[in-house]
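Appendix B, record 7
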Amino acid sequence: MQPSEPYYRDDLALVHHRGFAFHADACAPDILSLLEPIRRRNGLVLEIGCGSGLLTARLVETGHRVVASDASPSMLHLARTVATGAEEIRTLTLPDDPVPAADAIVGVGHALNYLPDVGSVERALLALARALRPGGVLAIDLCDLDWGRTRQGESNRGWVGEDWALVTRFSTPSPDRYVREMTTFVPNEDGSWRRDDERHDNVLVDTARLPGLLATAGLECEVRLSFGSEAFPPGLRALIGQRPA
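Structure tokens (predicted):
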């Protein structure tokens, strides 16, 4: 089911930026290590699902040329203030938008799981693969079917920051679906607080099938438990590959 509005409207985008930077921070060192050959040859990195630009900023600070993309206008607005050195920060809605050619394609935050079905995820992956130049590197994370299996009966949770609050209700309506119903609270200028609600419906995929799929587009890929030394939560996988030079 496609959402009637883009995921991550203004308030949830802001809460995610302020309170949930830990995944991008944890992944950045190992992604930078994977991309070191790309940096040395001044290649172009395409980031999908850049969110508020947390990983983008790390890539730019390390000397990468980056085109950062996301489907959320609110996230892109934040990214333009966080990752000011990116070559471009732009809308990219997979699987249908054209994917620019790049020497590396990266993404954290399981952006492709936000697509409506497995077929859309596979189309998006093939589009990314075809955009990767010879010698290019792919490094993205995805929620596997194990993500849902390990979260059956997951308890609802709440988080509170200095100027935000988030309450999330979880459900797994089917083996390939993971749903988060999120309520955010952020302050208005007059000191009152406003509420917004979003439902995020994620499709889960059998990641073991993906190397075979991407081989049809000329990529050599493997599925790992993380990008390197960082610990992924149960069910999250790293898809890492390369197009032969």
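Remarks on this record: Residues 147-202 form a domain with the N-terminal domain of TfIIb fold (CATH 2.20.25.110). The helical segments are 10-19, 22-34, 36-40, 54-61, 73-82, 118-131, 145-149, 210-215.
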